[in-house]
Every structure is written in C-alpha cells, then in structure tokens.
Amino acid sequence: MSYFIDRRLNARHKSAVNRQRFLDRYRTHIKRSVEEAVNRRSITDMERGEKVSIPARDISEPVFQHGPGGKRTIVSPGNKEFVEGDRLRRPSGGDGGGAGEGSASNQGEGMDEFAFSLTREEFLDFVFDGLELPHLERKQLVDLEEVRPVRAGISKDGVPSRINIVRSMREAQARRIAMRAPIRRALREAAEALEAEERKDPVLRNPARINELKAEIERLEKRLESVPFIDTYDLRYNHLVNQPQPSNKAVMFCIMDVSGSMTQSHKDIAKRFFLLLYLFLERNYEKVELVFVRHHTAAKEVDEEEFFYSRETGGTIVSSALTLVDEIITKRYPAAQWNLYVAQASDGDNWDDDSTTCRQLLVKSLMPRLQYYTYVEITPHAHQALWEEYESVQDDFPERFAMRQIVEAGDIYPVFRELFRRRAVA
Amino acid sequence: MTQRSPIATGSDWNFEMLTDYEREIARLADEYRLDTYPNQIEIITSEQMMDAYASVGMPVGYHHWSFGKQFLAVEQAYRRGQMGLAYELVINSDPCIAYLMEENTLMMQVLVMAHACYGHNSFFKGNYLFRTWTDASAIVDYLVFARKYVSECEERFGVAAVEQLLDACHALQNYGVDRYKRPSPISAEEEARRQSEREEYLQSQVNMLWRTIPSFQGQEPLPQDDDEDPLGLRQQGHYPAEPQENLLYFIEKNAPLLAPWQREIVRIVRKLAQYFYPQRQTQVMNEGWATFWHYTLMNRLYDEGLVDEGLILEFLQSHTAVVSQPGFDHPHYNGINPYALGFAMFSDIRRICEAPTDEDRQWFPDIAGSDWLDTLHFAMRNFKDESFVQQFLSPKVIRDLKLFSLVDDDSEEMLEIEAIHDDRGYQRIREALSVQYALSVREPNIQVWKADIRGDRSLTLHHVQDRRRPLAKSVYPVMRHLHHLWGFPVKLVSMEDKEVVRRYQWPLPEKVGEK
C-alpha cells in the first residue's frame, strides 16, 4: 500500500523560525561580520547578501566525547603496502591516523569556521539594525496631489472593464425571480382552471372558456420566456475612489566637493557614505531618486559615473552647489510630493566669504523644505569656517541637520549609525 | 531475451509513471518477502528538502536554533555545490514517509522508491532494535505533541528559558537512552492525558527525596561518630543505589530544582533520543540493506524490460558512486562508507549462500549453501552494526576492501599495523571493526554515581575510562549544561581500573587547588 502526496505547493521555509532563532542567538557575531563587510565592500556591492563566518567553537553543541590520547585501534580500508607488524611514523598534525574516527564523529565537526550566507534582506537588516530616519513623518495630506484609486464598494455606473460579474449575475438572478413570480402564479392559476374545466362532465364544459384559458397559458408562457436573462440595470461595477496618498517617494541629493583638495580616497569615503544613505532610504520609501551635484567653484548636475570618478581642480565655492540644489528642487521635486534628503561630503575647504552665504541659503531656503540634511567632513585636520557656519545651522534645526567628521574609511559606518540612531520618541 | 517494453523512457517523470513503477517495485519486493509499513511518498522541492534535512527528516519538530544552524549549513553546502542533496530521506514511522525531490530524474525517483520505500522501510519494520525501541505508529503524533508543548512553554516562560533548557538537554541526549531496558512505548494521547497528573506526581516524588526535615519516628539511628560527617548526613545509604546510565532520566526524576514543565521537556528530548538510538547503531546495516535491495530491484526491473538501457546505465553510474570506498590515503577519504561496507556484506552473504567456496564453508558453516533470502532476512532482523560485523564480515569482503587495523598508542612513538587482510588478520580485523561500531566504545562510558541528597546536593558522575582515552575538552561545557539542569555542583570522576585518573567539577572550585 503506497500513496503519493504532492507537497511542492506546501509552505516552504519551514525552517524560517529556526533560522531566525540562530541569527538572533549569534546576533553579536553576525553584526561584527556585517560591520566589517560594510567597511570592506565596494559601493556597487551592497545589493547582495553576505557570507558570515562564526568560529565553530562558539556555536558548537558540546557532548561528551573522547579526546586525543590513549590507545585506540582504527580499521581503515585501502591497504596498499602495509604488512602486519609494520611500524609507522605518526603523521604530523595528528590528523591522518585519526581519520578512522571519521565514521563515528559527526560530519563537519572539526572545521574551524562555521560559514553561512545571509540573504540580502537579512544583511541589510543587520546593517540598519536600530536605525531610523529622522523626520519620517509622511508629508501632510492636505498639500498632497498624490492620489491612488482604491476600491470603495459597488456602483451602478461604470466602465465595462470594471464590471463585477458575480454581483451582476446575482442581481440578474434576483430580478428574474422577482419578475417571473407573478407570471408563474398566473400561469399556475390558469393551468388549474383549465384542468378543472377539463375535468367537468363533457356536457357541462365550456369550450370557449377552455380556448380562452389555453390562449392565456400560451401568452403567459411567452411572457415568462421573454424575461431577459440579464439586463442593463443588473450590471454592477466595482467602484473606485481616489484617495490622497502620503508620499512614498524620496529624492536624495548627493553633494560633493571635487576641488583639487579632494583625493580619490576622500571620494571613496564619501561614496560609501552616500551609498549607505541610499540603501537606507530605499528601505523606507517605495521609490528613491538620486541627484548628483558636484562642485568646485561652480556646481553641475552629473551622472553617477562622472560624479565619483572624474577629476577637477580649482577652488571651492560650496554655495554654488546649494543654489543648484535649490533650483532643482523648485523645478523638479516639489516638496509637497517628495521627501527631500541632502547628503553633503566635503573636506571642509571653502572660499572664505562663501560659508556665510551657505548658512543663509540653508536657513532661509533649503532647510524648511528638507526632511534631513547630513554633512560629513572628511578631514583629519582642524575645522574651518564652513564647519562653524554649519554648526550654527545645526543650532537652528537640531532635528533635521546633522554633521559629523570622518577621518578614515572605518569611521563611516559608526558615523552613519550615529547620525541615524533611533532616538527616543519625544 | 525479454521483449523490452519500458513503462517510461527519458528522464522526465510524472505521477502516472511513478505510480506504475511503484506498483512494479512493490510486486517484486513482495517476491522477496520485504515486509513494509505503508508508504507515504511525498514529492518536495529542494528547498523543502533542506528543511527536511535540518530537522533530521522529521515532518514536525519543536523550534530550536540548532536546527537553524543545521539548515544554514546544508543550504551553504548545497548552494556552493559541494553537496548534492541526498536524493532520499526516509523516516521510521507508520506510514513510512519518504521524500522524493522534484528535481530528480525519473531514474532517481525509481531508485529512491526502491531504496527508501522498500529497503529502509522493511528494515525499520523488521530489525529487532527498531521493533524493540521505537514505536513507528506513534512518532509523528508524539512530535506534534512535543512541538506544541515546547511552544506553549515558550509562551509561558519565555523563549530564552526554554532554549537554555533545550541546549542543556541536547548536550546530554546521547545519555538519555536506556541501553538495556525496553522503553515504554510513546503515545501522544497518553502523554497529553497524563501530563498534568505526571507533573504533580513527579514533583511529589522529588519532594520526598529532597525532604530535609528529618521525620522523628524514634527508630532513627543516632549518627555514628564520624569526624567527616558529624551530623550523619551521608550515612543513610548511597543514592542512587545502582549507577544510572540514563542521565536525562535521572535528572527528570531527581533534579531538585526543576519545575514540572522543565521535567517534561527533559522527557521530550529523552524520548526523541531514544527514538534515534537504533538509527545510530544500525547505520551500516540499514544503508547496506537498502542499497542491496535497490540494486537487486533495479536489476529485476531491467530484466523484465520495464526500464530501458539508458535508465539502467544512469542507475549503475549513480549506484557505483554511492558504494565507492576511497582508500584511507585518498584526499576524499572520510571514514568507512557505510553504504559500501553494508552493500558489500549483504551481497557477500548472498554469494556465500549461493556459491560458497571452501573458505566460506570453513568460516560460515551455518549459512554456506543455505537459502540466501532466509539468511539475509535473518541477518537483517537480529543484528546491529556491531554484531553484524562480528558475525558476517567475511574474509572476502576484508580482502576486497583491503581493510587493515592500526594501533595508535600515545605512549609509543610509532603507530603499529596490527592486522591486514591475510589469514592471520581476518579475525582480528573483524573484532576491531566490530568494536569500532560499538556505541559503548565510541562514546565515553559515563554514569550517575551519586547524588549527595543529604549533604551539599552535589551530583557525581563516573566516567569509566578505557585504554587511557581521556575525555575531550567539551567536557566542561557539557558539565555546565548539566549544572544548569541539576542546580547544584556537579562532579565528574574519570576512573580507569578502579583508580581515579582525573576529576572535573562545575562550577570550577574557587581556588585552583587541583592540577
């Protein structure tokens, strides 16, 4: 007696709970690996999972076992030249001779590292664990033009493509029942009358009456048949209404100084920072657009490739970039529909008089529209005028303006975490 | 030659073909008197196979991180292509559940059905260890009960508490079996019904044992003078009276501080360990038996023209890979392949019955020339790996596999070849290999020696050391787990020839007094 069961459509991921338990248990280990990976990885590389290794001794499940030493006899296959009584040197490392234990011990035991893969989702979960976007309040509904059609019951009018077949057929059936009932009743009465008439003694029958009844029956049957199966007023349509939607779109402006003082390694650091922010935004918004603005003395909107890899020289005027961003926002990304984020990376150099202009631009025009502004200064040196001006901006907008200094690549992730640390809800 | 009219050709399969082949295999198996539980054959995807793998094939199981670890390991190996997923997985239940992987070719599906649904299945139903120690009809229900109970405990007492307890139990699960006593059968219904009763009863038993206020009955002997024990706390006999081999059972019944639900979980782990106990002792036999039958049945299918040449060639290639045995010095050597040894032995038993040589008559006077099918069934029913090798490992198999035994004595500078495949060596290799499969030798012999029920409540275990083989370093983590269960200090004494070799203790003594 045998039977087959097709289980292929059953739930997969039966082990999901156990997998999660494992990840939770080794959270600290995995986090460490993830942090290392974030610092090590190139930018384009964040879109995949990560191989994580945990020292095997940390996750071993201990049992009572024999340790090395003592006297043991091992039977092995594949003898070639040994004869009884041969004496051999013990193989170095003590591994070869002990291999006979293999059948007894669990496979995989003895490996130094337990390696496994995190999925991309799990990886990013660990990367952004405990972080949140400041000011992730969705844009106010009032000033929103964004709408989305949602189902809102059934209506009698609509376009053919939205016919609700089940409801229409139900209406039709109800109507048919209602319309046919009186006809059926009359038909039944006529039939009964006809029968009564025909049962009478032939002498007493009234042929005229019989004919009349027969005609009546015929007429009724026709009427019954002519009740339409479905009629236009049976039709029902799915009703849709437009509902205003909180905006789920974000745009992220990357501003970078490309003047002569910014070296390629500075740019790499900046790039990683931008990337982290991008991934983070992506997890919070359905759609994230990127705008790259680079500047030296003049600002220019460029594509990603050019942004990170082309070289320019010259002085630095930060306000040129801020002005450009301001223009782009006004032109393409109305604040009512977009969540606006700006990330700026610079080595802190700026044309002396320009820093004040920057502050004014920010305070007056940009900050009121932005969700969040982050500024990272990549320099081991002392701060200059720009930093000081920005500090006063931060005082004005402590919730939305954040700035940190990064000295080397290893600082990026900690700084990022610091900037987006989950804050206690005020 | 038979007219070839195969049921199907090519490598694609569908349910009709599987049903047809299954029916034919069943017919042939019946000829060979393979008595099986009904088969429940489940078609699953490779992902589901990984799930099944992680839970040792159990269709349901309680949640624990170690299964997650198992899953990740399997997944990693599979993704990297280091390991093909085993094409079969079968569990000892009634009905016997076998998994077929969707991705398999037709040949694989037929092979797996022969191997698992008729080979393993008949072994589960016939072998004395499985008959004695496990109850195939109850296991799935019991697993459901266990899963439900554990998850209820997680809700009531927190995931962390349950996890820690399970960790501790898992560390000792190899010592959660009765080796010589038949366990009472498990039944989910019974368990659930009796559970609350048992919780109370168990607790009362424990309370009796640990009662600290002496009962003044008048007859109590006055403490004798003893400077070590002025209160006479240790004079009321030794508890337990006999050493106990089942550590988890002892803990379930006697640990002073465990709450009833914790005892129940200890019991669940213990019962499941007991269920897997026969499996661990019959690896060679079980795989050998299944491999022998898939080989025989596939060849019969071919002889009857039910499969075509392509399929049988594909089969032979796969079969050869399964039973290959790399030599000890081969880079892929990973111990003796149980499929290879088991298959060689069962095939050789058949040969000894059908075409015995003089050597066979001398070594196996009882079975040489007997009915091979009777002998094979007899061997399958009444042995475990240890005794199977002891009884049936023939000189020919030793020669074919070129087995040799080597003595590794850490007091000697050199290793010594003790025996090889020659007249002087056969018997010694047989014995050495048999010992190698004995669980009692593979695992350290550890028993509960004493629970100091009147004194400091410490628990003392004895490790009977054999041939100077010490315990591995894992002893301390295991002791820590044991301490978690027992709640008071635990000690372990390694003894060899009645002499104490080494003492272990957890928690570690405050001052480092011992070397």
Automatic annotation (TrEMBL), chain A:
Region (Disordered): 60-109
Ranges in coiled-coil conformation: none
A Pfam family this chain is assigned to: DUF444
Domain of life: Bacteria
Database matches in NCBIfam families: PRK05325.1-2, PRK05325.1-3
Family indicated by similarity: Belongs to the UPF0229 family.
Protein name stated in the entry: UPF0229 protein SAMN02745148_00665
TrEMBL record, chain B:
Domain SpoVR-like C-terminal: residue ranges: 444-496
Domain named SpoVR protein-like N-terminal: residues: 12-440
Alphabetical list of NCBIfam families matching this protein: PRK11767.1
Protein name (record): Stage V sporulation protein SpoVR/YcgB, involved in spore cortex formation
